[in-house]
Write the structure tokens for this entry.
Amino acid sequence: MMKIGPDDAIVVIDVQNDFCPGGALAVPEGDAIVPEINRIVRDFPVRVFTQDWHPQGHLSFASSHPGASPLSTIDMPYGPQVLWPDHCVQGSDGAEFHEDLHLEPADMILRKGMRPEIDSYSAFFENDKTTPTGLEGYLKTRGVQRLTFVGLATDFCVAWSALDAARLGFAVRVKLSACRAIDLDGSLEAALERMRAAGVELI
Ligand code: VGL
Ligand code: ZN
């Protein structure tokens, strides 16, 4: 059992159809984490859910770059960007939360990745690492000091969110049994190492 106090929050990252088996950017076993998330979410006094929410033609989509293959990397003004298959398009079924995920306990649902020209893996900042989503202010004004991350994908949106949270001064835990990874060219091991080095507790 995790120790949870009044200063704790859970952040459930991107448990959406497109990241589950059958989806456009399916994470292996992405749907397997839903029962555990449903079980633990109510133990936390503050609960945030995030939703990847891209307009059609988003520049993180390979289809927006003629000749580019999905999962290749290009240089964007804000740094390297993996080009993904079209996913989590605003209003599509793929962008909906997994149907078994319990949303009733959510305090806040945060959407990210809406600006066409920049991706946002992290729940705190877009990929330029400077444009804020507002989540820091929400959590801090609610008195939250420690965050537990669960969701998809461990090596992208979960890791980038956890690393930003640590940088912002939150105590950070990632509950790996309730996360699943894309694991593109060793990206999972690299993300775990960066999180450890940043003082993120992997539990
Ligand atoms: C994600 C790739 C692209 C994620 C979102 O939720 O980890 N990964 N968009
Ligand atoms: Zn995305």
In short: Residues 14, 19, 52, 84, 121, 152-153, 156-157 surround pyrazine-2-carboxylic acid (ligand 1) (CB under 6 Å).
